[in-house]
Specification:
Helix content is 34%, strand content 0%. With 99 residues, it is mostly helical. Heterotrimer of A, B and C subunits.
Length: 99
Amino acid sequence: MSLDTATVRRVASLARIRVEEDELPRLQSELNGILGWIEQLQAVNTDGVEPMAGGGTQALRLREDRVTDGGIQQQVLANAPDAGPEGAAVFFSVPKVVE
């Protein structure tokens, strides 16, 4: 497959890339080179070759689906500039936004 200048201009427009007219031939050449490599890869016979990663018969290990607070409440609140008074309910204190 070979791209013409009009197609390269359209691809650049769709990608929202400004390409000057004098740059079009160079970009056309680069894109045609990339498409050539893709054609070579598609020509490789992969019948009987199992995928190395992803898909296939591999299954993800599952963990129990449960809700927790993370167990690090004090570490999280240590980042707060004001976490409320000692002994009170633990929360982030933020400035009033609406008057």
